Amino acid sequence: MRTLFFAILSSAALSVATVAFADDTKPVTPVSTDDSDKEICKPVTHEGELVGKTCHTQKEWDKIRYQEQQRLRQYQQQSLFQHPM
Is 0.70 surpassed by the pTM of this model? Predict the structure, then answer.
């Protein structure tokens, strides 16, 4: 009886948690052409310390982000095929 009670209770808790973590994000809207030439500055940190800032246009930030994603994806794929000896 006690096991049945805990099984029902845990399944109810899991179903509530699933609803709580449902994906409710909004789709990303494309950047308008007016904003793509505007310069955006972001802070540069090293080991948690602010060391300066770097400024790029939105197009340049998008290109930098894409290149970093490609490098990370390539690194992750290469690590899948390297076997320790």
Answer: no
Residue 12 belongs to some domain of the structure? no
Q: In three state form, how does the secondary structure of the chain look? A: CHHHHHHHHHHHHHHHHHHHCCCCCCCCCCCCHHHHCCEEEEEEEECCEEEEEEEEEHHHHHHHHHHHHHHHHHHHHHHHHCCCC
Range of the domain at 42: 37-85
pLDDT tens track for 11-34: 666 665 554 555 556 655 555 556
Number of domains, the chain:
1
pLDDT tens digit sequence for 53-65? 999 999 999 999 9
